[in-house]
Amino acid sequence: MIQGYPSRASVAPGERLVLHIATDAPRFRVVFYRWGDGPVPMRETCWLDGRYAARRGAAEDWQWPAYEFEIPRDWPSAVYIAHLDAPDGIPFDLAMTSAAALFVVRGEGNGGGDGGKLLYKIPLATYHAYNATGGGCFYVNQPRSQEPPGARVSLHRPGGGIGGETWGALDHYDTSSPRQTVAHWDARFIRWLLQNGYAPEFCTDFDIHHDPALCSRYRLLLCVGHDEYWSEATRDHVEAFVGQGGNVAFFGANLCWWRIHVVDDGAAMVCHQGGPRGALDRWWPQTGARRPEDALTGLSYRHGGGWWDGPRETEGYVVQEPDHWAFAGTGLCKGDTFGGNTTPPLVGYECDGAPLESFDKTRGRITLSPDAQRCATPPGFQVLAAGLLGSGWQERPPREMHAANEGIHTATMGVFTRTGTVFSAGTTDWAQVLASGQDARVGIITRNVIEHLLH
Q1: How far is CA 39 from CA 34, 76, 104, 190, in A?
Q2: Is the bond into 344 cis (omega within 30 degrees of 0)?
């Protein structure tokens, strides 16, 4: 047995990384990999004395033995994996290994405005929400917190993107990596970025939570895959970034669906998803008023839905605005579809939508509801394309203005400007289709969005 976790999953070059590691082997070493166009070996330590420590509960600080490692000043900003190796050899596997810990080396930024720097955010809060190491997470055997009320999970335990036990069904289309891990979404998107000449810098959502000025040092923030859990501070800082002229591209869905509370000096988080006082952390209450996630992304899971198990039914996205810069070079016309014949389908497994009044696939006429602003849809929000979620979808949440399963549920691709510009793709599985290259138009749209918002 050998497992570990970082004391803090983000460091700057020249800082010390503290890894907490427990093993029943007499010796172990750490092999550091940077994730680029695949794993890039960076450094391996000498053999270190192993110390055993018992597992604890999901809500506890595990307090395993600490080992410190200095991060070289010349290491670039990237996602890194600390692979834990034993004398008899443990193969490195980004997707399935338990002998690993994830961390990020942050960049310096200084590219806001015309500098054109790109910041990629790892959704560590969401990965820990589904991290069942220690017997519980936000979805099973929920450890409780009294203040703030709700479920509590520790960030000081194995898991959180890699190296832990992940709750939830495997992807029907890709069983090689569990959902809610860096291998499933981030690794694919990062590899595509690097292969296409981009040089992103990296952070976690907790970095944005703690540093109000972090985003302002960049031109464009990227959020990819499944980015479901946000703290109020993280959301405040991203919305302020947009209000000051920064741009955001959401190539994901089920975004900002739950509010978390960061507690114990960043060592744990709490989310109130139910109980006698109701789901206090859905739809973003603020001083007694709701704060729907639509105001951040232009979309909401309330107007979308999910299909978790088995093959899903979708015809793909129907183009509404073919002359928009997002579609330049795709050859798509109004009413054309894309992403319907890929594996996995581009639409799903979870989707965010806008409150639509009509969806006419034949003529490509997709219109917003006249009272969309009541759902906090930003003024000027433009529907670029949408994929209908039919009655077979496993969840279509209650719409703002309709009972459960009524109204139009879609994956919606859209854009709006509030000083800065926000693009939303409306689907979690964009990264899989992008990386596979099965639909070249997905790659063209991705490049168009990044180029337009980065410069």
Answers
A1: 6, 14, 14, 11
A2: yes
Longest CA pairwise span in the chain (Å) = 68
CA distance 270 to 65: 25
DSSP 98: S
What is the Cα 15 distance to its own chain's centre?
A: 26
Output the CA torsion 326→329→335→337 (10° steps). Answer: -90
**Top CATH class, 2-104:** mainly beta
Contacts of 251 (CB under 8 A, 6+ apart): 189, 222, 223, 224, 225, 425, 430, 431, 434, 446
**Contact status, residue 16 vs residue 70, Cβ threshold 8 Å:** yes
Q: Is the pLDDT of residue 289 over 60?
A: yes
pLDDT of residue 363: 76
State the Cα–Cα distance between residues 214 and 275, nearest whole angstrom: 35
Predicted TM-score of the model (pTM) = 0.96
CATH code of the domain occupying 113-130+168-257+293-454: 3.40.50.880
CA distances, 278 to each of 285, 363, 399 (Å): 12, 43, 18
Q: What pLDDT is recorded for position 368? A: 94
39: left (phi over 0), alpha (psi -120 to 50) or beta: beta
287 falls in which pLDDT band (50, 70, 90)? Answer: low
Contact 252, 428 (CB under 8 A): yes
Quote the CA–CA distance of 177 and 414 in Å, as a whole number. 29
Spell out the residues 6+ positions from residue 287 whose beta carbon is closer than 8 angstroms to its own: none
- Between 158-167, 361-370, 414-423, 433-442, the lowest mean confidence (pLDDT) is in 361-370
Residue 315, phi then psi, degrees to nearest 5: -100, 5
Helix (H, G, I), strand (E, B), or coil: what is residue 451? helix
Q: Where are the domains of the chain?
A: 2-104, 113-130+168-257+293-454
Residue 334 to residue 350: CA distance in whole angstroms: 25
Q: Under 8 Å CB-to-CB from 89, ≥6 apart: which residues?
A: none
CA angle at 369 for the pair 377 and 297, rounded to the nearest 5°: 20
pLDDT category of residue 66 using cuts at 50, 70 and 90? very high
Give how far Cα 75 sits from Cα of 70, 204, 449, Å.
11, 17, 28
- Is the pLDDT higher at 401 or at 380? 380
Q: How far apart are the first and last CA of the chain?
A: 48
Please provide the average confidence, as pLDDT, over all residues in the chain: 94
